[in-house]
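Model it.
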Amino acid sequence: MTPLVQHEWRARIAAEYGSAAITQNLVLWMIQLGAPPDLLENGLAIVSDELAHAKLSHDVYAAAGGNEPPAIDRDALGLSRRDTLELDVLRVCTRVFCLGETVAVPLFSHMRATCTEPVARTALDRILRDEVRHREFGWDTLDWLLTLPIDAPARVQAWLPAMLAEVEASYGAGGSWEITPVDRAWGLAAPSEYADILHRAIDRDYRPRFEARGIAM
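Modeled.
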C-alpha cells in the first residue's frame, strides 16, 4: 500500500459527489427548458450512478487504510448561470459530458486494465460500465440542443479551443511522478498517461463526433 493510493481514492470520492451535484443541477435546467423526458430520466439515473461511484470509491479508500472524510469543495457543488438558459445547458453539456465523460471512458478503461486489487476492480468495473452511458447522455443531449434555435454548432465551435485547453490543463495537473506496480494494482495511472489518453481521444473520439454534427475542430 502507498499513500498515493489513499490520496487518489479519497479524491475520487469528492469528485463523484461533485459530478452528482453538477448533473442534478444540469437536469434541473433541462427540466426548465422542457427537455424530452427520456433525456431527463437518463440524467437523473446518472446522479444515482455518481453517488454509487462515491460509495464504491469510499470502499476502496477504506480498504486501503484511509479514514478521513472526503475533502469536498462546497463551492464546486453546483453550476452558475452565465447566459440564457439554453446556452448555459449547451455549455455545460459540451464541457462536462461531451468532453469530460467521453475521455473518462478510455481513462477508466486504462486504469482497470492493470487493476488487480478486488475492491478496486469492483469499483472500476461499475464506473467504467456507467461512464459509457454518461458519455452517450452528453451526445444525445447535444443532439437535442442542435434542434433549438440557438445556433449551437457555431457556439460550440467557438468554445472548443478554450474548453479543450481547460481539459488538457486539468489532465496535466496531477504532476509528473511515477507510480509503482502496487499503485497500478489499486487502479491508478501515471499523470503522463492521462495526457496521452486525452490526446488520443481528440482524434479518435472528439473530432468524428463533433464533425458528424457539423462542428469543426
